[in-house]
Specification:
Elements (H helix, E strand, L loop, with lengths): L4 H14 L15 H21 L6 H25 L8 H7 L6 H34 L5 H33 L2 H24 L1 H6 L1 H7 L8 H12 L6 H25 L3 H10 L13 H10 L4 H16 L1 H22 L3 H22 L10 H6 L4 H31 L2 H22 L19 H27 L2 H33 L23
């Protein structure tokens, strides 16, 4: 390593910055920056969209305040999401500790280098989500002094993003200072998951919350003082008044005090005790928090004796549950879907009885599609050799275990949680029909989404950039909208026709059976064509290097 301290410091920053990208779970031809490039493109879309929508309107007053909140909320939530995802980013992991600490490097230097790398990482996203908003903001705000207009907008976005990042870092600092190692690990894992869910939910509810500012401020509701996003709208109002509302001006003072408190807690909890915190992080084993795959002893025994008699199915079934409980990145990924589902649930319930009919369908669609996406990402790619050397020719046993886990540990618990609401809002006969209809559709949806899934969950590498995330998001939203609305209308129609309802359940069951048989026959055709049994996928092949046209004489 070069002797110049400044050069060593730059190398450390570059090293820690590269560690923010997951490279160990990629396909051999994968690019670790591909998904980030697509993510940056997606995050730039909201500001560009709202600029295109709001620029011709010439906003002022409370309308301008609502649009300001949208841009501010996106900045704060994105910063919060990154800090939650990189929850332990300020501490050296075990590999860094083993490699870097024997070198003549101070722990304070490592902390400073990690802090700079994290700030650069955060800064990229903060600039990305605000680029179009800042560039075209003078066309939205009809003020005359363009310099003051842009300065106030940039200052508010920076202050809100900084507060979100410092608040989450300070919260972690308080937890790790107060709690012992094992307790911190357990509380931290739970809190990290809950924060991810809450932030994603707030992101999708941003337009609704922006439209509620005027009503809350004029009524003097105490709720407006409890949400930090509204504080920084008050700070924006102080720097560039749009309504001169006294409530918003008072909220600006709360924003400044909150920013100072978050920064002070971060400094107090990290700097004096950083060495002790780093050692606590390294010496404390990873937790095994309870999750959706954990069953009671009696239930576990009953499931083993009735549904998991095949040892392959038993192994895969418990492997899926254990991985979701222990893998942080998969918990956060599913928490993202959970936040999206929670936001959809809030918006769905606002439409009355029709919303109650769509709610189970909405949540089950998000749940099944979220699991389908999460299963594609490996947990510990280098450990999949255990499945590769023990793989048998019974491919259907692996696939059946995955479907049984989804039904028993995801779909069934969801409808059990929804049951009290259904029985409270509908007659018991209607509630039973709603639950049975939603569960049957969920199982059918699972069979469709997992039809071409030939993997043990969490064991196959993935290729970033192979899927167009923007196009996939559009198809996902359109498919979800059509699915929930169409199936809710079908449910309403079937509710008054018992014979038609019985026919629906028969058709749904037949469709599930036919999809299973079709998949089994595709495995048999594989054997006839290649002379060997179909095998599981452990590596995403991606696009071939040489493309063939498939022409024959």
């Amino acid at each position: 390593m070069p002797q110049r301290p400044e050069y060593r410091f730059v190398l450390l920053i570059r090293h820690f910055f590269d560690r923010f990208f997951d490279t160990e779970s990629l396909s051999p031809q994968g690019d670790p920056h591909a998904n980030m490039n697509q993510t940056l493109g997606i995050l730039a879309v909201p500001s560009a969209f709202f600029v295109l929508v709001c620029r011709p309107l010439g906003l002022w007053g409370w309308s301008l305040v609502g649009v300001r909140y949208i841009f501010l909320s996106i900045s704060m939530i994105v910063m919060g999401l990154i800090m939650v995802f990189e929850w332990d980013a300020l501490f050296p992991d075990r590999r860094d500790y083993q490699i870097l600490t024997p070198l003549p490097l101070r722990l304070s230097t490592l902390f400073l280098a990690k802090s700079v790398a994290l700030c650069l990482f955060l800064g990229i996203f903060l600039v990305d989500v605000n680029f179009f908003g800042v560039l075209f903001w003078p066309g939205i705000d009809q003020g005359h002094n363009i310099f003051n207009l842009l300065a106030a907008h940039v200052a508010a976005m920076l202050a809100g993003g900084l507060f979100a990042a410092l608040s989450i870092a300070a919260l972690q600092g308080v937890l790790i200072t107060v709690l012992p190692g094992k307790a911190y690990r357990r509380v931290s894992a739970t809190l990290q998951t809950l924060l991810m869910t809450a932030l994603v939910m707030l992101l999708f509810l941003t337009p609704l919350m922006g439209s509620a500012i005027e009503r809350l401020a004029k009524s003097g509701s105490p709720w407006i003082y409890y949400f930090p996003g509204y504080w920084f709208i008050g700070l924006y109002e102080r720097m560039r008044p749009a309504t001169h509302n006294a409530v918003l001006l008072r909220l600006g003072g709360l924003a400044m005090r909150g920013l100072w408190c978050a920064g002070g807690l971060f400094v107090v909890t990290y700097l004096p005790f950083y060495r002790r915190h780093a050692r606590k992080m390294l010496e404390t084993p990873e937790p095994s928090p309870s999750g959706p795959g954990r069953l009671g002893a009696w239930t576990r025994t009953a499931v083993e004796r009735t549904l998991l008699r095949n040892p392959i199915q038993s192994a895969v079934f418990h492997f899926v549950g254990q991985t979701i409980r222990r893998s942080v990145k998969h918990r956060l990924f599913l928490a993202t879907y959970g936040g999206f589902g929670a936001a959809l649930a809030v918006m769905t319930l606002q439409s009355g009885e029709s919303g109650l009919l769509r709610l189970p369908l909405t949540l089950s669609f998000v749940l099944v599609s979220g699991l389908r996406a999460a299963f594609n990402f490996p947990s510990e790619l280098r450990a999949n050799w255990a499945f590769q050397i023990a793989e048998t020719s019974d491919l259907q046993a692996y696939l059946a275990a995955t479907r049984k886990w989804i039904v028993l540990c995801a779909i069934l618990p969801l409808f059990v949680l929804l049951a009290p609401m259904e029985f409270a809002c509908f007659r018991w006969t209607a509630a039973l029909f709603h639950l049975a209809f939603g569960a049957a559709l969920s199982v059918l949806l699972m069979e469709i989404l997992f039809f071409d899934f030939r993997k043990v969950p969490f064991t196959c590498s993935h290729l970033p950039g192979k899927v167009n995330l923007v196009g996939l998001s559009v198809l996902y939203i359109l498919g979800f909208t059509m699915y929930s609305s169409t199936m809710a209308d079908l449910e309403s129609w079937l509710g008054g026709l018992p014979a038609a309802a019985a026919l629906f359940f028969a058709v749904a069951a037949s469709a599930c059976v036919l999809l299973n048989r079709w998949q089994r026959r595709s495995s048999e055709r594989w054997y006839q064509e290649f002379g060997r049994a179909a095998t599981l996928d452990y590596d995403d092949p991606g696009d071939p290097v040489v493309r063939t046209l498939g022409l024959t004489q």
